[in-house]
């Protein structure tokens, strides 16, 4: 076989994957807030690895949209611009509308029970970062219940950015999030259980609008 026709040797990426998981979790836990610098040397020391896996991990997180790199600043946790917020909101709307219709048509009773359990777990959460994890887990369950592989893959492609969207939302205002989100999700689950497509679409739209409004008009008095 010619050199041109050979497949390049595979590279082991297990360590870089683990480092990416650790950094991602630190971002989701609030250890690194939007705009925070992610210095390779410091991360390598904290994780007891060389800088190579850290560099690879940061590139992976950049592809997920969690990290941005600039030559004069290095890597930082992504700060969502107004354009980012608007794009994520509109893309979520398109995906969720299809998901709701798919769930109503194709979800099994077990699928719907998993969605309901995800909503129920939120009622016992008091920490805002854990609530965001539960919020994302609820939507994971909805997309799984849709039984549409490419739709679920599309959700996975923006999942980390939506998590960052919600972290940004609680960074602006968290009290009402902790107070109202569990009941909002219980209502979403109930509409899906009833396979009431129109009500579910209305509730999901209102759910998205609330978060969008917090980020675009953070003063609740206006």
Description:
This protein is mainly α. The chain folds into two domains: 7-77, Winged helix-like DNA-binding domain superfamily/Winged helix DNA-binding domain (Arc Repressor Mutant, subunit A); 82-216, Four Helix Bundle (Hemerythrin (Met), subunit A) (Up-down Bundle), CATH 1.20.120. It is 70% helix and 4% strand. It has nine helices and two strands. It has a two-stranded antiparallel sheet. A hairpin with a 3-residue loop joins strand 1 (67-70) and strand 2. The longest helix is centred in the middle third of the chain and has 25 residues, at 82-106. The protein is globular. The protein starts with 13 loop residues before the first helix and ends in a 6-residue tail after the last helix.
Quick one: CATH superfamily of the largest domain?
GntR ligand-binding domain-like
What CATH architecture of the largest domain would you give? Up-down Bundle
- Shape by Cα distribution: globular
What's the structural domain tally? 2
Q: Which percent bin holds the helix content?
A: over 70%
The SSE string, one letter per element, is HHHEEHHHHHH
Largest β-sheet summary: 2 strands, antiparallel
């Amino acid at each position: 076989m010619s050199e041109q026709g050979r497949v390049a040797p595979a590279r082991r990426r297990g360590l870089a994957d683990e480092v990416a998981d650790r950094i991602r979790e630190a971002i989701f836990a609030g250890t690194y807030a939007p705009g925070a610098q992610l210095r390779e040397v410091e991360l390598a020391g904290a994780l007891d690895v060389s800088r190579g896996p850290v560099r690879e991990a940061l590139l992976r997180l950049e592809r997920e949209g969690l990290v941005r790199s600039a030559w004069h600043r290095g890597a930082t946790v992504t700060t969502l611009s107004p354009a980012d917020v608007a794009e994520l909101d509109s893309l979520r709307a398109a995906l969720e509308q299809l998901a709701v219709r798919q769930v109503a048509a194709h979800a099994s009773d077990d699928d719907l029970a998993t969605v309901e359990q995800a909503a129920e777990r939120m009622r016992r959460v008091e920490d805002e970062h854990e609530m965001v994890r539960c919020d994302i887990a609820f939507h994971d369950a909805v997309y799984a219940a849709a039984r549409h592989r490419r739709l679920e893959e599309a959700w996975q492609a923006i999942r980390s950015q939506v998590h960052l969207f919600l972290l940004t939302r609680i960074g602006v205002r968290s009290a009402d999030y902790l107070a109202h989100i569990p009941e909002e999700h219980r209502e979403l689950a109930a509409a899906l259980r009833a396979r009431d497509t129109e009500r579910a679409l209305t509730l999901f739209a209102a759910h998205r609008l609330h978060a969008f409004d917090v980020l675009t008009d953070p003063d609740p008095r206006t």
